[in-house]
Please model this.
Amino acid sequence: MTINQIRNYFVEQHAAKNYVVDKTGVSTLELVGASFCADEPSIFGELNHEYIQHELDWYLSESLNVNDIPGKVPQIWKSVATPDGLINSNYGYLVFGKGNYDQYSAVLNELVVSPNSRRAVTIYTRPTMHSDWCKGGMSDFICTNAVQYLIRDGKIHCVVQMRSNDIIFGYRNDYAWQKFVLDLLVSNYNHKLNRDLIAGDITWQVGSLHVYERHYGFIEKYAQENNI
Model:
């Protein structure tokens, strides 16, 4: 599937009123077991480039406190953090942090040593997440499970595997992060080996790809603008 096919799926599901009630009792539209080529940076709505840069800067700081996000801290981050602002899901820490095994370096080294490898994987979540998600009053069960990198046909491809993804704001920001890491990996790989590989496909796989009721207007606006 492509991003456009994902859009059309949710337009059709909304028109048919095929809603699912989530754990909080809120109506959602959902696609279970989604798999598609992430060939666009947004599914519905426009990118907020300023916030994307703020989140990227925070990720690269590796801070596990949402109060360190530059600018105004989004309510969604405040709502999942402890009263002091602590969370689990700083993706920069999970990928680059020494305290989480510096997985980026491991992936880069794996591809340098074994270009055809299937072992170049960054693992975001962990078994202790079953209890870590609610420690100290937080509600932050890491959404990304793992990301795999594969060199094929002169390109470095990545497969993003998620347990849960909101397609309005979640996808946009997660895509920006994954594109940043992929581009960095391509650059560093080429520098180390004096190669000229390019970034390949980003395949997005999600257990629950969903839209919350409060965001149905994005779908309606898209359908209206495209006479669907």
